[in-house]
Design brief:
It contains four helices and seven strands. It has 176 residues and is of the alpha+beta class. It has two domains: 47 residues, no CATH class; 98 residues, Immunoglobulin-like, CATH 2.60.40.420. Bound molecules: copper (II) ion (CU). The site of copper (II) ion has 7 residues, from loops. Copper (II) ion binds next to loops.
Length: 176
């Protein structure tokens, strides 16, 4: 019965390993967070961004996060954000490969360097060319109930018993 108890554990391990490989969480600016005085070009150059990862912006009420076009990034144009975030802790899933641009829309902050440009690459660990991670990042996949494996194992044991009894029957028939 050790196989029956090991099977669910092995299954959970197999499911958990690829989930860990994908979905790195990258805190913008590391311990500095999203603030003034941090060089985000240097930070971005030290990171690898892949589809399935998440960006986390942590900031005070002095700041916010605008996702913008390259042109608005270059010119620090704050009036045309693709998306705006103000919660103080913003997680942005990197769902598509390509460049992404973020600025702080507080007056003067972008022009003083509070801007981030990244290039998201396709995850090299995924054999498919179009990975599509879910948009929600907080959910964790729960392992499947072990009932199915248990039933399969019991069925297997039943087959073994049937095989044994037929062998015994054959031996008895040969002897008699
Ligand atoms: Cu700011």
């Amino acid at each position: 019965m050790t196989m029956a108890s090991l099977a669910p554990v092995l299954l959970v391990l197999l499911l958990a390993i690829p989930a860990k490989v994908h979905g790195a969480t990258l805190t913008v600016g590391d311990s500095s967070g999203w603030t003034q005085g941090t060089n985000y070009a240097t930070w971005a150059a030290s990171q690898t961004f892949n589809v399935g990862d998440s960006l986390v912006f942590t900031y005070t009420t002095l700041h916010s996060v605008d996702q913008v076009s390259k042109d608005d990034y270059d010119n620090c144009n704050t009036g045309n954000a693709i998306k705006s975030y103000t919660s103080g802790s913003t997680t942005i899933p990197l769902s598509t490969a390509g460049p992404m641009y973020f600025i702080c829309p507080t007056s003067g902050h972008c022009s003083s360097g509070m801007k981030l440009a990244i290039t998201v690459g396709s995850s090299s660990t995924s054999p498919g060319s179009s990975p599509s991670p879910p948009s929600t990042t907080t959910g964790t996949t729960s392992p499947p109930p072990p009932n199915g494996n248990g039933a399969t194992s019991v069925f297997g044991v039943g087959n073994v018993m049937l095989g044994l009894s037929s062998v015994v029957a054959t031996v008895i028939a040969l002897v008699c």
